[in-house]
Structures are given as C-alpha cells and as structure tokens.
Amino acid sequence: MMQNRIHLITLGVKDMAVSRAYYAAMGWEMSPISMDEVTFYQAGGQVLGLYLQNALTHDTGLGLPTPGGITLAVNAHSRDEVEVLFQQALAAGATALQTPRDTPWGGFVGYIQDPDGHPWEFSYVPQLVPNENGDLILPDTL
C-alpha cells in the first residue's frame, strides 16, 4: 500500500540558469548535490527539483507540457507575509496572475507564475497556518 507522501516535486524548466537565479532571488538555497541538468532544493520534508524540460519530456515520454492544472502553494503566517512573498516573486522575475485579495472563505490569496509559467499561490488561511517548524499539518476540524 502506498503511503500518503510526496517526496519530490519536479518542475520542467527551459533555462536552468534563469530558473536558478529566480529561486535564489526568492531565497531558496540550491543543494550541493545539484548538477548542470537538475537542481534540488530542500523544502521541509520534501524536495523541489528543477529539471531541463527537454530531458523531462524525454524521460516521461510525454509531449511538452503546458504549466497549469496544478498550483504550488506557500501558506503564510499573515496577510502581510503574503504581500511580502508576492512582491518578492515579482522582483525576482515572476508574473502576477492575481494580486493578493480577500476570499469569500476568509483567506487572503495571490497567484504568480514563475519564469517557466508554473503557477504559485501565496496564501494566508487562518485555519491552515504552518507550525513553528514551517510544516502545514491539517487540523482534525475547521
């Protein structure tokens, strides 16, 4: 039986140097085990990988994907943190999709696209604030 875990999220990128520069500007630290064609970042108990798109396409046997249909999300500790993350992403080269705004369910959410078009969500949800270790643990009730 498979465990409910995701260990590695891999994003296909067009230009590794551009993508590395973007994530460095966002404060991500590249792992020393990274190589020319793949970059790894420790993300809590998971790993974010950047892999050259042509290699990822070859490995999976799929055609070139269009980013979308999935979002990567960072849950913030406050509305102010959402604003800071959003502005940091724009300064690093992201494109705004939806500026941070209040939601009908009580959250505060903004969306950007990284330089390769992958959508990221920055959100503050009072019921889903990361713990002191930065982990997001789902509550038993809302």
Would you give an account of this structure?
This protein has 142 residues and is of the alpha/beta class. Helix content is 23%, strand content 30%. The chain contains three helices and seven strands. The strands form two sheets. Strands 4-7-6-5 form a four-stranded mixed β-sheet, with helices on one face. A three-stranded mixed β-sheet has the order 1-3-2. α1 packs antiparallel against α3. The model has no long low-confidence stretch (mean pLDDT 91).
Gross morphology: globular
Number of helices: 3
* Average predicted confidence as pLDDT: 91
Percentage of residues assigned to helices:
10-25%
Percent of residues in beta strands?
25-35%
Low-confidence stretches: none
The main β sheet shows up as: 4 strands, mixed
Q: Return the string of H and E elements.
A: EHEEHEHEEE
| First-to-last CA distance | 29 Å
Q: How many strands appear in the DSSP assignment?
A: 7
Class from secondary-structure proportions: alpha/beta
The rounded Rg comes to 16 Å
Question: Order of strands in the sheet with the most strands?
Answer: 4-7-6-5
Layout of secondary structure:
Elements: E1 8-13, H1 16-25, E2 38-43, E3 46-52, H2 53-60, E4 72-75, H3 79-92, E5 95-102, E6 108-113, E7 119-124
Parallel strand pairs: 1-3, 4-7
Antiparallel strand pairs: 2-3, 5-6, 6-7
